[in-house]
Amino acid sequence: MTRFCTLLRVASAMLWWLPAVSVSAAALHRDDVLGTSLDLHIDAPTAQAAAGERAVLAEIARLDAVLSAWRADSELSRFNASTGPQDLSRDLRAVLTLCEQWRLRTDGLFSCRLGRLARRWREAQDTGVPPPRDELRAMAAAAAAAEFPVAEGMPVHRPADVVFDVDGLAKGYIIDRALEAARAAAPAARGIRLDIGGDARYWQADGAGQAWQVGVADARAPRDNGPALATVALRSHAIAASGHASRGYAIGPRHYSHILDPWSGWPMQFAPAATVVAADASSADALATALSVMPVRAGLELADALPGVAALALSDTGIAFASQRWPLLLAPGAAGPTSPEQLFIEYQIPHLASERYHAPYLALWIARDDGSPVRQLLVLGERSRYLRDLPQWWRSYGRDDLPAIQAIARPTRLPGRYSIAWDGRDDRGLAMPEGRYRLQVEAARQGGGHELLSVPVDIGQPMDLKTQGASEIGTLQVSSAGN
Predict the structure, then answer these.
(1) Pairing of strands 212-216, 230-234
(2) Can you tell me the distance from the alpha carbon of 458 to that of 438, in angstroms, rounded to the nearest whole number?
């Protein structure tokens, strides 16, 4: 039911306003909750803080008996054991409804219908032989096609081709309900932090103090003492992370991801990891799982389309991609300039006389003076075969990293003038210090030539420069905000 690893950690405690009564900054740690650890912090009068702890533990135990796929006596296991009509509890009905809603919202890429496939992979660990791909594909197709209406108050039939595995959002659902239980038991609480295995929900009363400072670990290979990729400031938010290295299926000498492709039934390969912030933990949990299956660009577009959601995705080799709202959550000092755009860049794809003209592949990125990459801005051209004809960009970003290409690569463009902006942040969404950088523009055309322009740019200094390419790149103009 859990990812068995801590992907997020609190970097520093919140500073609370404390009322003039006996209070308890109650801090509870348990290592035996849902197969992982529980960390709970309640700022409330002493008796209420203790009541809140008891309410949280009781609610988690109650819902584990409903939603666990690892307990033979859970309601979910009983539901999966029968295809006859069953009266479901409010919680199991709610979770299955959420599962189906997220499945539709992600075009099937998030799915709780993969229990049979997961069971088949667990069996393969005993035999030491991966399941046949045709068998998995047939099982996945049957599960995806099954009809599964969940009408309010009506008995529910489980489709014969579907075994439900709700791990993708069950922990988030439990966190949400447990936090509600804590608030009910401790009505005078000023703030609550509830963390189960690295997925967490934070609640703060109005005017209660500073936000929680939460360090975001590398979800591809989380380590308790590893450096944080970023620090976000959370008040009443939930945060969840999903990666492929934390657990999986060991078959012979190979290790396969525990996250399965819902269409093929095969474990995801070279897939991104993701950290998601949302208003509730079940949404953050589901989205983190979905973004670890979806191409990076599609996942970030989904995050941007949902109100109040922010995400940081990491390609298989660690290149970071931040959603539009991610920088807004960064802790003070990391958030940097408030202006959304620091540099405006106008570039031209020139008209060239050619018997068989092919629109060029083109990349724009920001680098330090030593050439090390800072931020990808644009990649035009979606075939890795031709992207290799951009050697400087390929060495910085594209080489051996197909997910990174899929993350931002867009179709080539015909000759014309276009514009793009740089907000002064790096690939992780962190603000870069003022100083000198380089705008790299590289273009190559099938049957044509290759060109690279490297233009010095400055953050914090007025800029208005114009230069001209010699062949594949036309006019390039860079100006700072306000110029």
Answers:
(1) antiparallel
(2) 8
E strands present in 173-272: 191-196, 199-204, 212-216, 230-234, 238-242, 248-251, 254-257
Which H/E stretch holds residue 465?
strand 464-468
Residue 472 · residue 357 · CB < 8 Å: no
- Contacting residues for 338 by C-beta, under 8 A, at least 6 apart: none
Can you read off the two tokens belonging to residue 459?
A: 């953050």
Angle between helix axes 46-67 and 167-185 (nearest 10 degrees) is 150
Q: What is the pTM of this model?
A: 0.76
What torsion do the CA atoms of 141, 145, 146, 150 make, to the nearest 10 degrees? 130
User: Helices 167-185 & 281-291, crossing angle to 10 degrees?
Assistant: 160
Bridge partners (DSSP) of residue 379 are 363, 409
Length of the chain: 483
CB 257 within 8 A of CB 114: no
Taking alpha carbons only, the member of 222, 241, 437, 216 closest to residue 334 is 216
Phi/psi zone of residue 78: left (φ > 0), alpha (ψ -120 to 50 degrees), beta? alpha
- Write the DSSP string, 321-342: EE-TTHHHHBPTTTS--S-S-S
Q: Which residue has the tokens 């529980």?
A: 38
> Quick one: which of 426, 119, 404, 172 has its CA closest to 288?
172
Q: Estimate the crossing angle of helix 296-305 against helix 281-291, to 10 degrees.
A: 160
Asked if residue 233 lies in contact with residue 331, where contact means CB atoms within 8 angstroms, the answer is: yes
Q: Residue 2: pLDDT above 50?
A: no
Region 123-144 average pLDDT: 94
Of the candidates 246, 166, 164, 233, the residue with the CA atom closest to the CA atom of residue 198: 246
End-to-end CA distance of the chain: 54
Q: Give me the pLDDT at residue 481, please.
A: 67
Q: Identify which of 354, 359, 346, 477 has the alpha carbon closest to the alpha carbon of residue 419.
A: 346
